[in-house]
Specification:
By secondary structure, the protein is an alpha/beta fold. It contains 20 helices and twelve strands. Strand 7, helix 12 and strand 8 form a beta-alpha-beta unit.
């Protein structure tokens, strides 16, 4: 049984019993040592011997739920214990259940702390990309977290129950202490990933990343050579990026390729998919939504129309469900969850956690679990952090909701009025009236970028066509539809 099934079915077991739901808030209560629930899961997996009185009571409750639930999982107790030996699985279960305990059952659900933190590790970058949301520069910003402050932030994330940590930028590898910090995060039992432009990844660097504990690398490739170099602003970038991808694959790193879809590269994407699968041998292809923020505002006329985006998502999903392919195709557009939902017998895509196993896990459980996951996860399942420690709802939403130097992540996550605003989809314009509001919710970053309103409509969806037409008409955006 795959670990994602363990997470999903454990959640279902707790939700299916009113008594266990009432106990959940107490079980997931945190102490100075951490979560009682995490301690109980460790004990169940045979990895923790001594428990406090509270932890013993929590363990008794958790053991009862898991023992009874293992039958419905279709696995033996031994198999369940083996899966729970994975600290990431334990932390994932604890994060979700604690969120249910604190916030109650929601559509879609908010986790106890960000399941995923995307950390813009540095403002420094060796490229000059046209769409850069970070407005990266050749040099680091003067107020970036120091090495020690970075480790302290990771400690805070661990105490909060964050499961996955993704280093982005700028170019994270441009910072000299990257490997040290990545290793520290891996030692604190995070799922560690890196978003990179790939140009600095030699074979030796790729090997060092793997040894440091990096589990996934996502490298941007926005087309073939002419298109990519133009989009990334530096001649020769394409060749170095392709080499970086090959180096990661060769040393055995789980490798994905990311593309930001615009009119610059839309027509190249089908051939690019073939190139990535057959020549580069990456495991994933991920199409990012274009967000007109920072430098991206200068190329707003290159955004896709709602029809173009819908056709692209249909194309990607046709590749995703093709069992003969070795490459999994995803998109960060929350509408991708609707695309997959409409294919009644196919797996449903969890747009913020691009993993085939997670999608297959949702197959046949379409309505309830897709509404639980809920498409756009900004401020609900994940958030971003700037190089100086500023916390944002999403790396594409430049609104400071706190700073890790001044407040704990949990305090920011639970008390921010901005995050609370994003979580209530009943008040969204356009998207809040949609039958898919709990499955998709629209991209909050696009709503904010186009309408300066976190609860505004996402104009990239065919259902919101009227908002797109209004933008073209009133803001003099030179985009055809």
């Amino acid at each position: 049984m795959h670990e994602v099934d363990i997470v999903a079915n454990t959640v279902k077991t707790w939700l299916g019993n009113p008594i266990s739901r009432n106990l959940l808030r107490w079980v997931s209560k945190r102490t100075e040592k951490g979560s009682n629930l995490e301690s109980a899961l460790k004990k169940y997996a045979g990895e923790q011997k001594k428990l406090s009185l509270q932890e013993k009571l929590a363990y008794a409750i958790v053991k009862l739920a898991l023992d009874k639930g293992s039958e419905s999982f279709g696995v033996s107790k031994e198999q369940l214990i083996e899966s729970l030996k994975n600290p990431i699985v334990r932390r994932g279960i604890a994060n979700i259940l604690e969120g249910i305990g604190y916030y109650g059952v929601q559509r879609p659900q908010t986790t106890a702390a960000p399941f995923l933190m995307v950390w813009n590790f540095t403002k420094q970058c060796n490229l000059r990309c046209k769409h850069c949301y970070e407005n990266a520069e050749p040099k680091p910003a003067p107020d970036e977290l120091t090495t020690e402050e970075a480790k302290k932030a990771i400690d805070d994330f661990a105490n909060a129950g964050v499961v996955a940590l993704s280093f982005s930028g700028g170019e994270p590898l441009a910072r000299k202490d990257f490997l040290e910090i990545a290793k520290y995060a891996a030692e604190r039992e995070f799922y560690v990933s890196v978003a990179s432009n790939g140009t600095l990844i030699t074979k030796a660097t790729a090997q060092k990343m793997k040894e440091a504990g990096v589990q996934y690398v996502e490298i941007s490739l926005d087309g073939f050579e002419k298109t990519h170099d133009m989009f990334r602003g530096i001649p020769g970038a394409w060749k170095r990026t392709v080499e970086g991808i090959k180096n990661c694959v060769e040393v055995g790193l789980d490798t994905g390729v990311a593309t930001t879809a615009t009119h610059y590269n839309l027509k190249e994407i089908p051939k690019l998919v073939e190139f990535i699968e057959n020549e580069l041998h990456a495991k994933r292809f991920i199409v990012f939504n274009f967000i007109p923020v920072n430098r991206g505002k200068e190329i707003v006329d290159q955004d896709l129309t709602p029809k173009e985006r819908e056709e692209l998502l249909d194309f990607l999903y046709s590749k995703f469900i093709d069992n003969d392919r070795k490459l999994d195709a995803f998109s960060t557009a929350p509408q991708y969850a609707v695309t997959s939902y409409k294919f009644a017998f196919g797996p449903v895509v969890a747009t913020h956690f691009t993993n085939r196993a997670a999608s297959e896990m949702l197959k046949g459980r379409t309505k309830s679990l897709t509404e639980f996951i809920g498409g756009c996860g900004a401020g609900r399942l994940y958030c971003g952090m700037e190089p100086n420690g500023d916390i944002e709802p999403c790396v594409f939403i430049p609104i400071k909701v706190g700073n890790i130097r001044e407040q704990s992540l949990v305090k920011i996550w639970r008390e921010s009025t901005v995050l609370k605003q994003i979580r209530n989809r009943d008040f969204f314009k356009g998207c809040g009236e949609c039958e898919y509001k709990y499955i998709c919710g629209g991209c909050r970053a696009r709503a904010y970028a186009y309408f300066n309103d976190l609860q505004g409509p996402d104009p990239g969806c065919s259902i919101n066509q009227k908002y797109w037409e209004k933008l073209v008409e009133t803001q003099n955006i030179n985009i055809s539809f």
